[in-house]
Amino acid sequence: MSPHDRLQSRSELYLAERRRLGFSCRNEVCILRSFVNHIRAVDHRGPLKVELMADWARSHGGTDLHTWARRLKHLRNFTRWLRQFEPRTEVPDDTIFGTLPERQAPHIYSEQEVADLLAAARRLGPAHGLRGAVFETLFGLIAATGLRIGEALALRNRHVDLKSGMLSIHQTKFGKSRQVPMHPSAVEALRRYRWMRDLARGPAADEDPFFIGTRGRRGGQPLGDRQLHRVFVELRSQLGWSNRGAHHAPRIHDLRHTFVVRRIVQWQRQGVDIDQAMLSLSTYVGHAMVSDTYWYLSAVPELMALAASRFESFTANQEVGHA
Fold first, then answer.
1. Which one of 33, 49, 131, 173 is the catalytic residue?
2. Is 176 annotated in the active site?
3. Residue 14: active-site member
4. Are 75 and 92 in contact (CB under 8 A)?
5. Pick the catalytic residue: 109, 193, 284, 296?
6. What would the pLDDT profile of 98-123 be if each residue is shown by its tens digit?
7. DSSP result, 255-278
8. Which long-range contacts (CB under 8 A, 24 or more apart) does 261-266 make?
9. Domain Tyr recombinase spans what residues (predicted)?
10. Is residue 248 annotated as part of the catalytic site, yes or no?
């Protein structure tokens, strides 16, 4: 077997192992295919060196250092794994193109802003049509459950069990499925929307999309991501919110962030042991690692005081222990 074929075989084995662990690997498939093709094109033979990886990263993505750094980051896990077979393989670090920007603080919606968004969506024309109900219910569901946008749009009728108040989420960001219980108020809102939808378009099959387009050829078809964002931008402009996040403007995805933050704040007020509850919250929203949920404590202003009080409590206990 040639060195190039061996590298191809190793990359396929790596991806297979990642998939067995529950990762979708969509980005990694493209990254590794590109890297293997580059190695083949330059006819490299011998250990994989950082200089070679840097050349590959520079050959894609123009002149943006962050794009190059992001490509190397995707390659890092593979090269670590590869060292068990090829010990002389080097692993790229953050010093080559610099570190990637940290996650930016989201816009955390107030209760009034969420209410205003749903009311504005409800008023979408045409009068007495289904369009307003579609967007009001969709925005409300994301706010009430913290679903990702793609997860909400991918819902089929069979995934929405209104008797048990449970959503079945499949094909998530990390290739895992989960069950999402809903508050009775969310269940009632979905039941009302489904009644309006079926009244307007007739009973739907189990495999039909739960949220549908209502205009032209898109009528009855799955609601699209671009259509959803276009409507949201229009409503955001109408409502004129002041941006409190680090992104260019409030986003739909910030409804998910808001759900997580409000849940943690509510637990704090109720005296719940947040460290004990974090794992359940992480599972509920579909985070791959509980550290992704803990990120909010240090990155969101609303939770900084909570993080500070936890640290003060910890240091006070340490002082008592050493007294």
1. 173
2. no
3. no
4. yes
5. 296
6. 776 677 889 999 999 999 999 999 99
7. HHHHHHHHHHHHHHHHT--HHHHH
8. 261/108, 261/296, 261/300, 261/302, 261/303, 263/146, 264/296, 264/297, 264/303, 264/306, 265/302, 265/303, 265/306
9. 104-308
10. no
- pLDDT band, residue 301 (cuts 50/70/90): confident
Does residue 236 carry a catalytic annotation? no
Q: What is the DSSP letter of 103?
A: P
Number of Cα atoms under 13 Å in the Cβ half of residue 110: 7
Instruction: Answer yes or no: 296 catalytic.
Output: yes
Phi (first) and psi of residue 84, to 5 degrees: -70, -25
Q: Hey, is 137 helix, strand or coil?
A: helix
Q: Which tokens sit at 220?
A: 């009855």
Q: Say how far apart CA 61 and CA 191 lie, in whole Å.
A: 46
For the chain, give the number of residues.
Answer: 323
pTM of the model: 0.72
Sign of CA dihedral 151, 152, 157, 158: positive
For residue 284, indicate whether it is catalytic: no
